[in-house]
Structures are given as structure tokens and as C-alpha cells.
Design goal:
10% strand, single chain, 198 residues
Amino acid sequence: MPDSAAVRVLVPARFRQGSGRLCLDFLRTLRFRNTPEVTEELADPEALTAWVRQCGPCGEGPVAAPAPGRVAEARALREAVHALILAALGPDGPAAIPAAARARLNSAAAAPLPTPRLTPSGALGWHSDDPVTATLALIARDALDLATSPALLPRLRPCASPICGAFFLDHSRPGARRWCSMDTCGSRAKKAGVRARA
């Protein structure tokens, strides 16, 4: 985690999704990782609650604001997920993850998950008495599954933008996707290319 004094804070109206996995969407809450523009989106309990509402399965029901200490736990889990992804993409695979990050992921993954429920309208909904903890458990389990899936790892890649820092799972048929989003990073790169050629 970068020095907190150097991290800008932003709580967006909507969080970025579309990486192809819940754990990778969660990584996006630290924008512009490893750049001078690094920006923290999980600024406070309200921001964590907003992320769980938007991105987690329990967004329809009430989500109580977590205690301030839970934000630090969520950020630490995010950094453990990041460490696992980097290890999984490295030559030694997921076994190379630091022991503390492995322990944090395993602990979070052991928490109770949301349970399915049939809503009065006949749709499938999800419930948890503690949606934040349940969503963090899903994130940890998703990261563990992704990092140990030989079929998926070749399609897991970082965005080609040098300032983005996001990862995505490339579901395209040729497997040649370069950007986490064509609307943001891809568009910026194309515009920069046009300016450079002009």
C-alpha cells in the first residue's frame, strides 16, 4: 500500500466495473496504482458500503455502514489480492505470495457467504446479515479461484496504459485485448497516438 500521505482520496458516484471478475473490480478501488496520481476510492465506511451496494450481490437489501476499522481491513484485503495476482502471474505462481497476504486471503475467504433467496417477485436475490463481510469473503474466494486456475491465468493481464494499474480478464475470442476499458484507457491511448502522429 502506498504512503497514505501521498494518496489522493476520491469517492466516485459509481465505481469502475467490467474487469471480468469481482476481485479485479475490487482492485480498481486504488486507482493509478504505483503512479504519482494514486487515488484511494475506499476513503471511509460510507465508500466501502457504496462499493458493496454497487458491486456485491447484496446491494438490494440494507447495508449498514461498517466500523471505521473495517475500511482498513478491506484495503488490506485488496492489497493481499494484488499480491496474489502478481505472484500468480510470476514465474513461481501463487505459491510465491507472501505468507501474511496468504493468511489474510484465507481468513477472509472463511467468512460466511451471502445466501440465495427467492424474492416476492420471483427473482433470485442474495442475503447476508453482514453484507460487507460476506462480499469481502466472495472477493477473497474469487481471487483464490482465479489465481489457481491454469485456464484463466493466460487471459489475466494488466492494462497496457502506463498510468492505469488495473488488471482485467480478457474474454475476447482472440485474447488480444490490451486495455481495461476501451472507453477510458483505450480511448486515451488512441487520442495520444493521433496527437503524436500529428
